[in-house]
Amino acid sequence: LADARQHPGQAERRPVLFISVPPAATPKMLVSEFARFLGMPVTDRLNQTQITGAVCDLLCELGTQLVLVDDVHLLDTQRRAGAETSDQLKYLGERIPATFVYSAIDIETSSLLSGVRGAQIAGRFKIFRHRPLAYATEQDQAVWNDLVQAMENLLRLRAHRTGTLVKHAAYLHARTAGRIGSLSHLIREAALIAITEGTERITKQLLAEVELDAAAEAQARPSRPARHT
């Protein structure tokens, strides 16, 4: 939205690009993910160099300023394919005038930061450790409430009352221990149940019946009744 305000009348701009690193990725698989996000056709006849050139040119034309790359811990630089894919990411970062943000799990212990290639990557990036969102201060609560509201705004349930989930924001934080992924799973699963059962709305009782991931369930404060089918 901020980019749209700064560049009115340029709806074709794509300020942000997001991809996930595929399992056992090769350089061509990686750059093909860039192409798919941009809606570019990728055929077997196109080689890695051709796809890379087309992607870089288009991203420059579209004014892309931020490139988000998730699951980079899947790159095993101890193997040839992983090392070459890491080099491909480095090349893309040099060709595209944008800020690159990598997201990973336990990045410090992964092979991505080891060896000569790892030293180059470590010298180009800062590491920010993401922790679950807190709910202690008014500012913490405002951030969490905004997140809940944003997710609730995406619901397309006919009988759901907007603001219901925000009203239960404290409960949602207790259930998920402040984990964004757990919150997204909880709301999504509750919405699916609401659609399946025909109620088309999410209640606190319904939220209580959704089973979450092990980490979130271990820290959940209240005990919840088992769901009967």
CATH topology annotation of the largest domain:
Rossmann fold
**Parts with pLDDT < 50 across at least 5 consecutive residues:** none
The total of helices stands at 11
Q: Which structural category do the helix and sheet elements fall into?
A: mainly alpha
Report strand %: 5-15%
| Share of residues in helices | 40-55%
Q: Your description of this structure?
A:
This protein is mainly alpha-helical and 229 residues long. It has 2 domains: 2-124, 3-Layer(aba) Sandwich (Rossmann fold), CATH 3.40.50.300; 138-219. It has 11 helices and 3 strands; from the N terminus they run αβααβαβααααααα. It has helices at 2-6, 27-37, 48-62, 80-95, 115-124, 138-152, 164-167, 169-176, 180-197, 204-209, 214-219, and strands at residues 16-20, 66-70, 99-102. The protein has a 3-stranded parallel sheet. The longest helix has 18 residues, at 180-197. It is globular, with a radius of gyration of 21 Å. The mean pLDDT is 90.
Q: Layout of SSEs?
A:
Elements: H1 2-6, E1 16-20, H2 27-37, H3 48-62, E2 66-70, H4 80-95, E3 99-102, H5 115-124, H6 138-152, H7 164-167, H8 169-176, H9 180-197, H10 204-209, H11 214-219
Helix pairs in contact: 2-3, 2-4, 8-9
Tags for this model:
229 residues, mainly alpha, Rossmann fold, 50% helix
